[in-house]
Amino acid sequence: MDINEIDNALHGIEQMLEVAVRSVLTLYRDDADGPFQLAAPDGALLDFSVLDIERRVKDLRGGLISAHRPQGH
């Protein structure tokens, strides 16, 4: 995994985290006294973002591990 692949992976993770953070902030509305609420489209986007972050982190970690594995193993 080269530096450009790492940079692209981190950029994607950053974008998905931004979606996740914005979605979580909508859960803390000032006018809501009841349970947290998230509109269905926002919930779907949050779900996608979190699962995408998980996939990207696993891919990035796998790439870094294989890049530093001794030759012949």
Structure description:
The protein is an all-alpha fold and 73 residues long. The protein has one domain (3-67). It contains 2 helices and no strands. Helix 1 runs antiparallel to helix 2. It is elongated. The protein starts with a helix and ends in a 6-residue tail after the last helix.
Overall geometry comes to elongated
What is the share of helical residues?
Answer: over 70%
Q: How many structural domains?
A: 1
SS element count, helices: 2
Biggest sheet statistics:
none
Order of helices and strands: HH
**What radius of gyration results from the CA coordinates?**
17 Å
Q: Give the percentage of residues in beta strands.
A: under 5%
Structural class: mainly alpha
Number of strands: 0
Short structural description:
This protein has about 70 residues and is mainly alpha-helical.
Observed structural traits:
73 residues; 0% strand; single chain; elongated; 73% helix; 2 helices
Q: What topology emerges from the helices and strands here?
A:
Elements: H1 3-27, H2 40-67
